[in-house]
Amino acid sequence: MSIVVIGADYLGIIEKNLYSLGIKELTHIDGRKVQNQNKINIPKKTDFVLVLTDYVNHNTAKMIKEVARTKDIPLIFSKRSWGSVEEKIMSAGVMN
Q1: CA–CA separation, 24 vs 3, rounded Å?
Q2: At residue 77, what are phi and psi to the nearest 5 degrees?
Q3: N or C terminus of the chain with fewer C-beta within 10 Å?
Q4: Distance, CA of 29 to CA of 50 (rounded, Å)
Q5: What are the pLDDT digits (tens) for 17-61?
Q6: Is residue 50 left, alpha or beta, with left meaning phi > 0 and alpha meaning psi from -120 to 50?
Q7: pTM (predicted TM-score)
Q8: What end-to-end distance do the CA atoms of the chain give, in Å?
Q9: Distance CA 36, CA 63 (A)
Q10: Quick one: which H or E segment has residue 3?
Q11: How far apart are CA 41 and CA 88, in angstroms?
Q12: Contact residues for 35 (Cβ-Cβ < 8 A; gap 6+)
């Protein structure tokens, strides 16, 4: 599985735990830099996008939502805590 994580400067334990769930490829975009907010690109082979809501502004979240919708990629919004991320992923059913 391939995932794009948007938000947070550093993923910490979240990255390690995502790999332990079976993620093979992880792309992290911090979402803070203004010059990057308008040109976030989600690769075609992405299985789902995880947005860490504590670390992105409303305009960036809206833009990501639109890009994911047009590419028909599942989108998960979560706080930046492993418990919250794991709960959202499992309830969304995006993991095999």
Answers
A1: 8
A2: -105, 135
A3: C
A4: 10
A5: 999 999 999 999 886 665 555 667 888 899 999 999 887 888 888
A6: beta
A7: 0.88
A8: 9
A9: 12
A10: strand 2-6
A11: 23
A12: none
